[in-house]
Amino acid sequence: MRQLKVAAPIGVIDDWNAILQTAVPGERLSDVILSAGLVRGVVSATKLFHATACDSGREWSHEDEFQQLSSYVNEVAGKRQDLRSLLFDVLAGYEKFLPRYASSRTGLLHRDLHPGNILVDEGEISLIDLDLCSNGDPAIDLGNLLGHFVEEGLRARRPATEILLARTNFYSAVAVSYSEQVAEAALFFSELTLLRHVYLSTRYPARAKYSLPILLECQKKLQTRIRHSTRREVIGVDILNEVHGL
Questions:
Q1: pLDDT for residue 243
Q2: Furthest-apart CA pair in the chain: how many Å?
Q3: Which domains does the chain show, CATH number per domain?
Q4: Of the four, 21, 81, 155, 214, which is 20 to 30 A from 201 by CA?
Q5: What phi and psi, each to the nearest 5 degrees, are found at residue 51?
Q6: Which residues of the chain fall below pLDDT 50?
């Protein structure tokens, strides 16, 4: 298990809702190879973070997460008429699955957990950028991180084999460190994160060409989820095998 560090807060900029933190050493997770050991270490570190007894003063629910995503989809639909119909179809499809992952799980949430906010320094993992920190279901954070791995693969920022192995190792580590149910929910929220990346792709000119491919990948994942929805047993492994390329 790797040691978890959270950069110490040193101040707040209220107008920006920003927390200033001390500088910590390390490379961003987005810049290092996602070995099996490192992926397991990251999951262990997030487990420690989520288990921290801390009241952030604000709650973040599954409904909050979906409402925010809906606002992003509406914004993109207003700008990209070519994506509008498919965007709303995919969003509506995922909304039907939201109740399936209802849970009373709660913990300290980072709420912006992506590879750029995780620093790796030898045996230590540091989390930075705590501006959105809330209390809620850890599966939201885990899904956000997994969704970023998927998006990095679509943009070919990493070799395809590295991404495929990282997703599998991540899912397995979450199932062991948390539970199979949390891993299932994280997989679901990773797909919502990927849909949010359609919105993000419209905000950065260099990513504009990925808007449609990301949306089509979301549709593909949703269709797989629908095909397996008539079964009552766990579907995470099926989705990993069929959609995530394993």
A1: 47
A2: 51
A3: 3-242 (3.90.1200.10)
A4: 21
A5: -85, -5
A6: 1, 232-235, 243-246
Is this model's pTM higher than 0.70 or not? yes
Structure tokens that stand for 139 in this block: 């599966």
pLDDT digits (tens, 9 = 90+) for 79-125: 999 999 999 999 999 999 999 999 988 999 999 999 999 999 987 89
Cα 212 to Cα 198: distance, rounded to the nearest angstrom? 8
d(CA 39, CA 120): 11
Dump the DSSP string for 191-240.
HHHHHHHHHHHTTSGGGGGGHHHHHHHHHHHHHHHHHHTT--S--HHHHH
CA angle 188, 177, 160 (to 5 degrees): 55
Q: What residues contact residue 171 under an 8 Å CB cut-off, 6+ apart?
A: 146, 183, 186, 187, 236, 240
HEC per residue, 121-181: ECCEEEECCCCCCEEECHHHHHHHHHHHHHHHHHCCCCCHHHHHHHHHHHHHHHHHHCCHH
Contact 202, 76 (CB under 8 A): yes
Provide the residue type at 238 as one letter: D
